[in-house]
Give the backbone structure.
Amino acid sequence: MCFSHTFTSITSKEEFTHQLPVKNPVLDNFVFEFDRMTSDLFASSRVPGAAIAIVKEGRVIYQKGMGVKNGIDREPIDTHTVFKIASVSKTFAGILTSMMVDRGVLDWDDPVQQWYPEFRLKSEKYTSEMRIRHLLSHSTGLVQHAYTNLIEESKDFDFMVHALPEVDLISAPGRSFSYQNVAFGVIEPVLKAATGHSYTDLIKSEIFGPLNMHDASLDYESFISTENKAYPMFAKSNGWGNGKISSTYYEVPSAGGINASISDMASYMIALTGYRPEIINENMLKEAFTPQVSTDIRSKYFGRWKDYKRSYYALGWRIVENGDDVIAYHGGYVNGYRSQLAVNLDEDVAICVLSNSQSDFSSILVPAFLRLYDMHKDE
């Protein structure tokens, strides 16, 4: 069994040291029950492989690889096995932009055309009204998933953006939620114009490097050359078979092109819960997690969340009112890889689940984790 757990109470996140374990019987019991629940669910779902991490108050309390990387040599998944994290990549775009806003490099309400003059929509009026916050909150007014099919075909990013004036608009910017990938990716040239650095270089220098996310990358070539990677696996009549690793979404890495291990994601979650303020401070997190537009998507995403009340989209994040808690969340699926990331903003606890199949394992495990944690948090 490959997991660890530690716990402490602190008064200052700035003074927190991540390497000093303090045993806590309540947390020990929670971790034990979670591991048993996860093992049972993994077995019953027959998912080929997954990796899971939980952080609590700045520490990794659970980290585990399960199953196999592929169906040929059946090497086991470990905590440094790399997966595509799909749309969980959007959370990085929200955090990175929040960092730049906090430093005064640009503003959420800057017109998109201020930084990217060639940006155009069918309506000149709506084009001029488009703000940076609209890109990252999926409130551009464009028809849902406009040109996502072109991303799936690995079309050039500039080609896709320059085709946006052909897409119908359903509302003015900021009025309604309509999930985008191409329009979301416009944040990349905006940030490049504002900083002088490419999106890829910014993610590496501002997030991957400082957070010691050594397994993470944003391109197809890096993923393919990584020895310790999970392959996408698809159901067959006699089990699971290897799929082909595609190059889709790497043209728009902000929308879905990050590769990472569960060890990387644990480091990221520690920062997301406020315990790396020298890198991602409280104001950056507050801005990224502030709801921008209401969403009505329970049946599609949150049917298994028994305490779900309502949800919103913030800036690269879904925000969910779940029972008495507020959860910053995102899920993703691409090329046979599924990912889930949930941060309980009231409890300084977060979970990430990565898998290499279309199984519902992660979609079941995350809400089960939230309920189990609620059962234990007041003990």
The chain is about 35% helix and 20% strand.
